[in-house]
TrEMBL record:
Keywords noted in UniProt: Acyltransferase, Lipoyl, Transferase, Tricarboxylic acid cycle
Name of the protein this chain belongs to: Dihydrolipoyllysine-residue succinyltransferase component of 2-oxoglutarate dehydrogenase complex
Domain of life: Bacteria
One GO BP: tricarboxylic acid cycle
Amino acid sequence: MTTEVRVPTLGESVTEATVATWFKKPGDVVAADEMLCELETDKVTVEVPSPAAGTLTEIVASEGTTVGVDALLANITEGATAAAPAPAANDAAPTAAAGKSVDVMVPSLGESVTEATVSSWFKKVGDAVAQDEMLCELETDKVSVEVPSPAAGVLAEIVAPEGSTVDASAKLAVIAAGAAGTVAAPAADMQSASTTAPAAGGKDVEDAPSAKKAMAEAGISRDAVTASGKDGRVMKEDVAKAIASATTAPAAASPQPTAMPRGPVNADDAGREERVKMTRLRQTIARRLKDAQNAAAILTTYNEVDMTETMALRKEYKELFEKKHGVKLGFMSFFTKACCHALKEVPEVNAEIDGTDIVYKNFVHMGIAAGTPQGLVVPVIRDADQMSFAEIEKAIAEKGKRARDGKLSMAEMQGGTFTISNGGVYGSLMSSPILNPPQSGILGMHKIQDRPMVINGEIKIRPMMYLALSYDHRIVDGKGAVTFLVRVKEALEDPRRLLMDL
């Protein structure tokens, strides 16, 4: 029976790829899930596994060919009786049973994420593992990803130890499928072999066609490029990194503003300090916040809102709301609705700058900042302007829980057009939030505090909250920012305005 090998899903907004390298040729015997070829898109490199065991009878798309999603790459005739391919040099460690070796690969990390750091291994070499049992945890600059075992057996080799950085198509480990005993070779020897093997064969490996073209156009030699592809193969993104490095090198020689170095610390104090490496998430938060300050003209305008009517409405209907919708009625849905209402009137707060263009969004993808043990993340509620109070509350509760558990996917944190940050849950009375690029506005909520207010000539105690809108002054003028905040204030002080679209 003939089985077709087709182009897999390449990711959101990616419609075509280039066949970079074929690892097999017609007539070769292949095992199920063995890597046949490597595709290269403008974002990631994708390895294509064999859908069945058999013989590679025909290659339809040769190296250098551009193919679309689901295009036919090759044909395999199933039922070949030859033995599965012999293990590579770094897979040569013996196992207690003659089971098939299964590679543990980096799972999909999401759009625009090209690398991750191995933060923890839950198993060690020689441990028995069940299928789908968690082997290790990867940490990207946005989320943590747990990697399950693709098969039951024994962990024969750890290719990427803790602390190592791996790309989106890298191999993490090898499972001896079906093995019941302990692997004989020590882990250190196997990791050493895996480290040195690619270098030994790198000179005989054919670089990706797109990489060759890029090197020729840029006029740089292969020796100036650090290869990241399989067996030391140079990929297109490697050339781009080399070009960027060469461009920035002269600039790096000149004095640059850097973080102020630590002063001298006496021995007694040093002995009581603890030094912990910043996580990738924390490093990315730090970089993005500083980039936002450097790139945007951030200005903050303030106002205060009397929460009396919103609190009364919530108190009156919260039991009925929870009984009908199965979720509690909080303040975030009121603020989300109020912001969506205000963004219609002041659309530049919901826009972004792209070069010399302003991109206005005719929709609201609301980012709701959430604090987690790993750091601040911003899950996005898509089309919040089209949702009911109940739908908003359910979405906030579900994404908040996934954020705290570290289960948010990349797609759930991308594409936001405006952000709400609630520092009030931690007791903050006033703050100036920083923009979440490329967005042009972020609303800061704060603690509700009883304060004396003059109402119709009389002093009354009212539950007041300070509001802060940080905005990009390059696109949003002061009038628009103040108008936006006033509309939010009006909607919260008289929630009936939301129903009347006033």
